[in-house]
Every structure is written in structure tokens, then in C-alpha cells.
Amino acid sequence: MQIVNNIIVFLGFAPLHFRFRPRASRAKLLACASIGRYRIFENTPMPLHRDAILLTPGPLTTSLRTKLAMLRDWGSWDADFIAVTASVRKSLLDIVHGQDSHVVVPLQGSGTFSVEAAVGTVVPRDGHVLVLDNGAYCKRAAKLSSLMGRRTTVLPFDDAQAVSPMALEAALQADASISHVLMIHCETGAGVLNPLQAVADVCARHAKGLIVDAMSSFGALPIDARTTRFDALIAASGKCLEGVPGMGFVLLHKQILPACEGNSQSLAMDLFDQHAYMEKTRQWRFTPPTHVLVALQEAIAQFIEEGGQSARLARYQANCDTLLRGMAALGFVPFLPPDIQAPIIVTFHAPADRAYDFKKFYDAAKRHGFILYPGKLTQIETFRVGCIGAIGTVEMAQAVHAVALAMQDLGIAHGAPASAP
Amino acid sequence: MQIVNNIIVFLGFAPLHFRFRPRASRAKLLACASIGRYRIFENTPMPLHRDAILLTPGPLTTSLRTKLAMLRDWGSWDADFIAVTASVRKSLLDIVHGQDSHVVVPLQGSGTFSVEAAVGTVVPRDGHVLVLDNGAYCKRAAKLSSLMGRRTTVLPFDDAQAVSPMALEAALQADASISHVLMIHCETGAGVLNPLQAVADVCARHAKGLIVDAMSSFGALPIDARTTRFDALIAASGKCLEGVPGMGFVLLHKQILPACEGNSQSLAMDLFDQHAYMEKTRQWRFTPPTHVLVALQEAIAQFIEEGGQSARLARYQANCDTLLRGMAALGFVPFLPPDIQAPIIVTFHAPADRAYDFKKFYDAAKRHGFILYPGKLTQIETFRVGCIGAIGTVEMAQAVHAVALAMQDLGIAHGAPASAP
Fold first, then answer.
1. Spatial distance between the Cα atoms of B22 and B420, rounded to a whole number of angstroms
2. What domains, with CATH codes, occur in chain A?
3. Residue ranges in chain B whose pLDDT is less than 70
């Protein structure tokens, strides 16, 4: 054991020289670690147990190794950081086999910033966007498109159904003015897996641009740019690649790139400009989220070591199966039929038991170590449980057990909804 | 010494079970630390020395304590994270005494995203923005304003001068259609400190809206919302508050807030919408950069412990003085006269010595432990050195020494420029 600097940090939650501080309130225990001349976490409430596991579809639980990558500072202009940017960009193309057909443009902000940037950059100002809508995130995409002044039409589907390539076919035949189609690969509002390949085939046949929000599928579900034609595909750092949140990225087809110049009304979110500058200088135009990018590089390294997309899908599928099996045993009923349930996030009907209240249920599950996610459907009461992040079936089984304990705590006898579908 | 989890990390650069890897190239030594079943930094090149100190105006060198705050994952919907958001928002208002007059709206992305969001939210679509331009970042602000379709007029000043309140007065008298004035408090293109109070007074007298880009001054230079009237003031996490980059924030005057509704053509960057949602739910509208925000909270705690803005200014001023004195002894001449030199970043004339080449100079200084910053002036050759970050006069003296060593390495006899001003 070799120690050069006298700085030692104990992860987990037993910092060196741990002590309670008398002035700490009961509600907010403050932990203090003295490390040489540093005092660490003086003002951050530190739990005396393992942090709750996030069963939320981003931010999610990341590996220790990913977080540790953030313990260094990087100059955004420096060659070392430029190499990180290049490495991440290459990896992102590799994951969907897009090296020959696409470029990748990283962008600061959350995934929604990248969706807005993609629409604003790819769709000309007189373009017409058709949004295939089967959930809350589709409605958000339609809203940002129309706010930017792009003519926007919504093709509505039920939240509990996948979007229909046949309905898309009919819509394109009925209105030749549609220039672009926008779809969400995995609609996490309910958790539906939409038929990317079939939608892409219809768009290709009609020579329409396709913008794919692959936020919650990229890295986990198969996407192959060699066989699936898309103009733009969007995802983010803090989803199935298991990085931390803070940046998104957009794959743009090389053939459409020249026509994108001047489309954007936004300087910050102009992906054409971002790409041109990055190609010229290898740098980001504006200050990049350096720590987030370095964490993403480390997360991608683990993704590759795990075995890439197929291995990640297998783990998430096992997580999802463990969850569905365990929750079924407690009486819970999933909102979606199995054939369109993506192994990313599962929506469950709220139990009919009168002792159920989401807030109390959430707090109880959290006391037992797991963070659930509220439902996003407007018509019926549901809650959601994510299957993604640096967790496996062990944690999912623990999560089901935590739900069982939460039910006990609240006196919920059974998880069944009022009327099983 | 209490150990609960068997995970131990040695910061500094001597990870546990450190070993050289035979396949590592000379250029890129790979370090590997085995920690239980984790392998850490397998794919990240790890230096065998202290990381170079960033003399760049954001990203900058942050404290270990700030970075360590990023070692946990947070659910963005969870009460614990909501409390972090509330705490940071309150602190940001406190720093400029804006509790009574302003609200604060955090935003994902780099500082430029927040500048664009402020202009797009505050200025109505038929508004007219006058940009007081004495540098590269002013030009960027004018560009984003006109891209969004806002009528934009530039009032040009020399890069080596502060903007003139008298010239502003004349411009406002000459054109009554101007609705808003945009100024940059500290223009880091050259490093000029602009006269915020005098500009604000002119705007108040003419009843014009004022948008202040305080990116590189917030927290270090005095700003008092009780005596300085502004509609919007913008800064970011990774500047003088010494957080990591990844989010900005905008202080909006409460009186103008209602009129901001519907101004923005962007969903992601609509600060009115972001604020309304945050007030209602205490959450961010879209996925927040959780780790960046928690690091900012920890950075602000250290800011307060240090003694707040006046203490931070004193440290930066001492840094700047140490730098100017040391560089003068080597023959270097600063670009700006002392009376408008902000203690944030210093622009130096490039040496006339024919052995000088910025790239080589940069690389040599880096080998001696310091990351310099390129110049941003178009007419004359310069380079920049930041005075901000979690560093003091010890590091600044070391930086000057590193410059001296870099000069030796390159055979630069003297730092004086071709013609001293």
C-alpha cells in the first residue's frame, strides 16, 4: 500500500474522522470528514447507509468508476480534453455503426436541448414536421417544434400502443407537404418500444426526413445506421450509456449536413455550427461540461467491456423480467402488454387498496433503499420503475423486496389495480 | 479509522495496487487501480504527477471537496435533490442581495445558453437590443440576439477600453426604439472591467431594460441588486463560484417577469417557463445536471466559508498582482491599462522574441504544470492567463516560475513585445 499524498477518502459512507456535529438538526444530519487540511462534505447531509438506488430513467445509478472519473479538472482547450471529445464521438458512432453515414455532434444541456437542436437544425424554416405521438415526450417534441415556428402536425396514438407505420404511410400519402417525421424510439412516458425499422422504411420510401429521439434506447436497444435510414438520432449521456446527466448528442446523416446551414434560429443549439467548429478546431464552441464528458468516456469504456449493446440489453432485459415477475407476485399489473414493453422502464397501475398513496409509497420505498418514479399518464393513476443503470438482477430483486416492505409499512394488502385490464 | 465498505480510494495520484501496464505506450501511461471487484481508471491516462493547474477562466481548477461532491447519484425528482436546488437558488440571490427584487432561474448548458435564454426570454419579439461591444463575447451576444430575430444594434468600443456610459446615453437619446441594453460586466476577451453601475444608472434613467452578462464577475466582483438596477443578470457554475461547468443561471427582476411569458421561441431555453415550473414543483423542467448542481452547492459552501465575495475578490486580486509583478520581471507587458484590468484574466502581449510560438509556449508551460489560455484578440498576438479558481498566490508564483522555465526551454530571452504600448 503506497501513499504519496496524505489525502485518503473512504467511499461508502464512513469518512475518515467521522463525527456528528452537535449543531446538526435531527432532520439533516451533517457529516464531517477531516482530511489533512481539507474538510469534506461539511455542508452536505451524508446518509449513514448506502445511497438509495435510482430506479429512474436518467438520472440513474452510475458506477463508482464513472463517478471517480470526475475527480480531475480539464482545460477545455487542452489536447488531453480534445482527445476525450474525439474518443467519445468515435465511440458513439461505433455503437450504431454510423462511421460511414453519420457524424455525431455533442451538445451541452439535457436531452431535450438536443431534441430541440436537432429539429431546429435539420428542419428548414418552411419545413413541416409530423410527430408520431404516443406519449408525453412526443407531445413535448411537438411543442418545441411548433414553438420554433416549424409547421407541426401531430399523428396521435394511444399511450398503450406503439405508433403505426401503416398510419404513417396513410398520413404521408394524404399530405405531401410533410418534410420530416419525428418519432421516439422508446417512449418512457409509458415505456413503449416503437417500431423504428418499420417507420424508417416508410420514411425512406417516401423520401421524408426522419428524426429519431433515441434518448432511452441508445446503447441498449439495437440501432444500426447501415440498415436503418435516419437523418438525425438523438440521445444523452445519462441514460443507457450510464453516464451522468449534462449533455446530449445528435447523429446527423452526412448527406443532409450541407442543407442544415442557416436553419437554426439559435446560436447555442445550432448543430451545423457546432459540428463545423468541432471539425475545424476539435473543440466545443462553448464551454463543455468537462466532468460530464470525462464521466461519459469512462462509462462508455465499461459499456464496451461489458460486451456492448447486446450485453447491456441482456442485463436490462433480465432486470425487467426480475421486476415484472416479482411485482406480479405482489399483485401489481403492468400498464403495457408484453410485446411493446421496452426493458427500460415499466409503468404499473396504482393499487386499488385505499391505503395506497404515491407520495407515501415513494417515501416508504425510499426508506428501504430505492427511488421510484411517478407515473406520466394523465388519465389513469400509475407509477414507474426503471430497469436501467449500473444495477443488475440482485438490485432488482432487492427493489421488489423494498416494494413489499413499503406495502407492509403502509398497510397495502395487495398490489392489484381497481380493474385489471 | 473506521471502514464500513471495503472501498478505498487514494486521491492524489497513487491509487491502491498501482502498477504500470506493460502495453502502455510511453506517450500515454495507463494506470490501473484494483479496488475490490472494481477496476478504476483502466482506460483513462493518469498522470504520475499533480494535474496541471488551469489558468483558464472556466473550466478552472476546482477544490477536491467540490469534486468529491460528485461521487453520489441523485434522483432529480427526489426531495433531497429538490432541497439542493432550493439551497443553490437561495444562495445565488443572497450573493447579490437580490432576495427582494429578483428570482433566479438555473438552466442546463454552458453560460452562453443562459445568455441566449435571457435575451430570448426578456426581450419581446419586437424589441430592440443595443449591445455595448468591447470584445469577442459581446459580439457573440449580438449574434445570438439577431439570430433569434431580435432587432440588434451594436455600439462598438475598442477592445482595450471600457464601454462608455456617456456613449450609451447618446445612443439612447438618438434612438428611442431601443428597448434593452446588453453589457458584459467583465469582458474576458481582453479582461476589461466594464462600469456596471454607471451603465445601469443610464438605463434606469431612460427606463430601458438592462441585461448583464456577469459570467466572469459573479461572486468575485461586487454586484448589489439593491442599488444596481438590472432586468437580467447571467452567470454560470464553472466561473468565480469555482464549481464545475455544465449549468448557468439567470437572475430576473420580479417586475419584468409577467411580461416575459411567451417571448421565447425556444422550449428548452424559456426561462419564464422554467421558472414557473420550478416555482410550482420545486423541480427542473428537464433533466438537470445533478452532479454539476451538487458540486455547485459544495462550491458555494466553500465560498461562504472563505468570507463571500469580498474575500474571493481579495484572493483573486492577490493572484492577479502576483501574476502581473512576476510577469513584468520576465519582461511581459499586459495588454490593458491597470485601471480597467479586472482581476479575473490578464491578456499579455506575445513576446517579440523570434523563438516565441504560442503552441510551443503553451506546451512548455504545461510540462511545467500550468495550462495557459490563447488570446482572443484578432488584431494583435496575445495570450491570456486566468487568476481565478481554487488557487492562491502560491500557485500564481509557481505559474510565473513555470513561464520562466518555458522561456528557458524555448530559448526566449525576454518577454517584451515588439513595441511596448
1. 52
2. 1-51 (no CATH), 70-304 (3.40.640.10)
3. 1-48, 420-421
